[in-house]
Amino acid sequence: MTTDSDSALAARQTTIDALETALAGPRLPHDSAHLARILTADIYRDDDRSDSYRRTYAQLTELVRALPPATELFTRRAGLLSVSEWTAVADPSLCLAVLIHYGLCLGTLLEFENEDPAVVAHRKAMESGDKFGAFMVTEIGYGNSSLAVRTQAVYDPETREFVLHTPDVDAVKFTNAAGSDLPKLGVLFARLMVGGTDRGVFPFVFDLSDAAGPRPGVRLSAPAEIPLVSFDYGLVSLNDVRVPNSAWLRDTASIDDSGMFHDPFGDRDRRLQRTLAPVQNVWAMVSTSLAAVARASVAHALAFAAHRPMMSRLTPGEPLLRYRLLRRSLMAALATSWVSTCAANAAGRAWTQSPAVPVPTGTEPGAKTWGPWGASSQMFGAIKAMTTWAAEEVTATSRLRCGVAGCLTRNRFLHHQGLGLVCNAAAGDNLLIVLDAARALVADAEQESPRPQDRSGAAFALEDPRLWLELAGIRQNRLAASISNDATGRLLQGRDAFDTWDPLAGRLRELGVAYGLHLAIDSTVAVLDAVHDAQAATILRNLTAVYALDQIDRHAAWLISEDLLDVDDYRRIESSIMHLCDALAEHCDVLTEAFGYPGGVTRAPIGRTPYAPALASSLAWTCGDDPRSSSSASVQ
């Protein structure tokens, strides 16, 4: 016999399942279950970080050996997204190792190995966990150094080998290679010199270090620490390191027997874009990772607030979540994590469905204005930037709302926030990516027929998703058209490229952010339409409304100045958000379960109830003698 209680529990679980399905995107349940089992093993505990770099690589070895080969993972990319998600939540340092080892290094080898037996052997050594990848693009002497790589790979026609060389300290590489006695395989980006002529930037793969230390000609620095996310970042200098011809990941280029260089691209800029194109593989992985840490952080904060009694004079003993200011803050953070998850899932889905890295044509609008990313996907780049900034905001808010508990490293907030900090510059600087995406949008505005810049005339309510989508699209299009007109005027005045675009950089950033916001809201509204459980649909619609109204509030001055937002509607925004947050708070337990992760993976005491004994039991204790025993002994 089914009781009312049984029916309520079943309905609750149905809602949680629907929420989890909406959050999962292209990632598969069996991948998540497999990773949850893997990451609860003792080796993934981080109680002792005294030798953190080696511990991270020991964890990476175990993980690599528990996963399918990279060839399979890059064929079925949803698995890589799941690995990125779960390692980010469990340990951001391990997540960085995964992003570099798989997304950057193995992704580059798979793209350019051309079935060369020597390169295949390197790849298999990485697939087995016998070697770790070190991705070597950034040089320390110049900002945006990927546009002007100075490390050289000089072709020796006598031996058909290459000599890798760091010409001066400005060209020293910054990479994950400070662990000098670990088996590291360098994926080096260097300028190919053939017969004294610069032939563009290509990747090279070679042994950087092994158990005996750096290989001949290789110098590795001590670690250059990045706070919050511990990893073996350091400097690498190369002194005439000889590598075989097979080390050159030549793609479609070649050097014939007479020493003549041939490249179908015929252009160093296009070759650079092609060489760095596999980097965009990691953008979808990064976005997935950051959306995951945002969800995990705010789920912990909500669980804490729902059960933490507050000894206030106003309402002693009531939970923190009863206070509307805190409730509004955390529900807005939860809404941001939801929308950034939908955006990350849209990028992930597009990535899983596009098996080939696009080959640049050299005609991409805005290609290589600020960085080398103009030829890469604008969507992937904009979503990578948007999810990074969202994760920083959500993790910081969650940490702050937990008081001193938020500052404890055991509760993970600082580590998760640190991943957001690092990913601002990892795999391309977010600001430069956004500027180049915006520059491409301006070029589109110059070349295409005008896009809608005015309201459709439909009387959408403030809470209607169609209004949010319309406003986001109009803002993007008006900004692009305005910048295009100003840039055209500057060019007609005879301004050079710098004097044309540099004064517009602030507005270009605005445009890039508007583009990311439009993508995020569009992807979220699409997910809402696919949720069939009524309770879950209401919860997710309310979360989306909180996010959209908060964004309208942030851009209200512009929207009002453009006659896109009525002043009376603006005055209603905050009360509407508060009402939505009150409704969402009624489902706090469902939300924390759907958005959160198993305690065996996060190992954060703050995720357990009650918190005080959970924190106390997570720590080792040093105890003095029992005073009662001492007192008794002295009397006797």
TrEMBL record:
Coiled coil: none annotated. Keywords: Oxidoreductase. GO terms for molecular function: acyl-CoA oxidase activity; FAD binding; fatty acid binding. GO terms for biological process: fatty acid beta-oxidation using acyl-CoA oxidase; lipid homeostasis. It comes from the Bacteria. PANTHER family: ACYL-COENZYME A OXIDASE, ELECTRON TRANSPORT OXIDOREDUCTASE. This is Acyl-CoA oxidase C-terminal domain-containing protein.
